Amino acid sequence: MNWQETLDLLEKGIVRSAVKEGDKWVAQIQVKEAILAAFKAGELKEFAGGFVDKHNLPPREFKVEEKIRMVPGGSSVRRGAYVAPGVIIMPPAYINVGAYVDTGTMVDSHALVGSCAQIGKNVHLSAGVQIGGVLEPIGQTPVVIEDDAFIGAGAVIVEGIQISQGAVIAPGVKLSKGIPVYDCIHQRILNPGEAIPAHAVVVPGTRPFSNNKWAQDMNLQLQCALIIKYKDAKTSSALALEECLR
Q1: Dihedral over alpha carbons 158, 21, 83, 176 (to 10 degrees)
Q2: CB under 8 Å to 182, separation ≥6 — which residues?
Q3: Mean pLDDT throughout 117-141?
């Protein structure tokens, strides 16, 4: 496929920049290569409103029959991104090329869905959430948020981190391959880049700076994330308000 065909198929949800094989998400290198080829082929163009971008990657426009609700106020979905029927996009939000946003998902104000990020069904990306894009390195899997996950306000998820089905990420949590995640229920530390388990409830935490005496003397702390429980009926009911807001 050339880059034009790839962008068309991405927008239709027929091809994706990452797919799940068994329990593992795998980057689709040919798709990402085509996206990079589109950038290379593009020429700068002035768009309405004083914006300048590659001529072949303009913002998408939607029609009522697509059943996508994009509220006025500065949101943008770039060419080559898939947005399913039933998605709600609150202003201002941005969905980049190669991203996939499945049905029933809410992309709230000031949220970013980075290039090639994969967002499942019935996900809530709360206000200010930053979902990092991973277009390069070309073989690296992008950030994945699986079905029914709840991502709290201001959370930052980057470097190909995967959030498994039904997990709850509390406001302000930062997740990258360099930030350890402590599972307080199973008393273990997740491996770097290991997926956040299904239905885990993750909150911000700190840990001692253990390998520097001066830092210890100053009582300095490093950032981490803590799995404090796994979602139960009570947790689910606390999130039920989400459905009332749709």
Answers
A1: -10
A2: 188, 189, 190, 205, 207, 224, 225, 226, 227
A3: 94
Q: Cβ(94)–Cβ(74) under 8 Å?
A: no
Neighbouring-strand partners of residue 224:
205
Residue 200's pLDDT is: 96
Return the number of other C-beta atoms located less than 10 Å from residue 124's C-beta: 24
pTM of this structure: 0.93
Q: Are the beta carbons of 11 and 82 closer than 8 angstroms?
A: yes
Instruction: Give dist(CA 49, CA 43) in Å, integer.
Output: 18
User: Where does 176-216 show beta strands of DSSP type E?
Assistant: 181-183, 188-189, 200-208
User: Rounded to an integer, what distance in angstroms lies between the CA atom of residue 82 and that of residue 79?
Assistant: 9
Alpha helices in 13-166 (DSSP H): 29-41
The answer to whether 190 and 162 are in contact (CB under 8 A) is: no
Burial class (CB in 10 A: 0-12, 13-18, 19+), 40: exposed
116 is written with which tokens? 């090639």
Domains of the chain: 3-177 (2.160.10.10)
- 71 vs 33: CA distance, rounded Å: 32
pLDDT tens by residue, 166-182: 999 999 999 999 999 99
Residues 107-127 have pLDDT tens digits of 999 999 999 999 999 999 999
